Write the structure tokens for this entry.
Amino acid sequence: MAILKAFKGIRPVASEVAKVASKPYDVLNEIEAREECKGNPHSFYHVIKPEIDFPDDFDHYAPEIYLKGKDNFNKLINEGVFFHDDKECLYIYQQTMHGRKQNGIVGCAAVSDYVNDVIKKHELTRPDKEEDRKKHVRVSGMNYEPVFFAYPKVVALDEIVNRIIQGKPEYDFVADDGIGHTFWVVKDDATIQAIIGHFANIKATYVADGHHRTAAAALVGKERMEGNPNHKGNEEYNFFLAVHFPDDQLAIMDYNRVVKDLNGHSASEFIEKLKQNFDVAEKGTSIFKPDQLHTFSMYLEGKWYSLKAKSGTYNDQDPIGVLDVTILSDKILGPLLNIHDLRTDKRIEFVGGLRGLGELEKRVNSGEMKVAFALYPVTMKQLIDIADTGNIMPPKTTWFEPKLRSGLVVHSID
């Protein structure tokens, strides 16, 4: 059963929170992050992406990078921008995007739940990215950024959260991208114990977004555990920072693909080959967005096409075989375009649904890319089915939006 723990949060004073809060470390590259926090020394990017404080050619994985992140965080504490809560709390984090709200419970998940697969994963991690985040945790002794978890909806938890959010929030601001962030501190012991008690009846939680941060936080905790001869099990390193959302409040956006060339085929030859496994229909120059599972959009030489997968090209009884990313890889990317490893092939790139299908047109029309494919979004049910069966999604399958803002609360593992 899932473990949830209250903790003494380290968080910004209300007057500074909008300046502090940043997007996650991996949403913007170094140049974009540097531009975003220009003139803002309190941006949490200085903590989670401290390479922005070094020259462009500085090694991003040098020891100085991680020490700089720690120094920048200590500076925020010393300047009174951050402070420690005086008791163990839980927190409620509400995000609002285009009128849709999702309410997350902020608390600590357990390293043991990660090790024992109570926390279920659906993606593989890259060792280099995982090690980078582990070094931040090791050097700082902090979980700087929360991970984004989902749990099966619990009516009693919804009722508790709905009561809490009727009260005055600690933070309430709208970021530059128009997404609202509202934050409540839960100090009442009876309420905290009620929430923790309901979590104890949840069989599994699911990593929605942040597999690398989850692995890093859990594995550093495991390192601490194994390295402590006096380990008891209640030390803070046994836990890591997470925001838990009920699954029915979350929305997954499409995650699309652009490819640099047609692997030697002409456009007409490529379309003819597609007809072996798809019903192909030209849709003209107006953007065509897939409206159902197993239907794809393709943009090629200034025109949009509908590609409807024929019966027999997918397996709706298989949690992986049902995915449109699987169909695209098995029937188009691999056999026609000779793209077999999505993690390493430089001829393919990925475009999150938040950028819209106009971004696909732009990438192709510029000549940078030759063809684009838009997919129908994966559902939360598909994600949970895959995680429950121990399967792994293909790379770049899910895009969750809105992203959690970093810097609203931090957890110390020391």
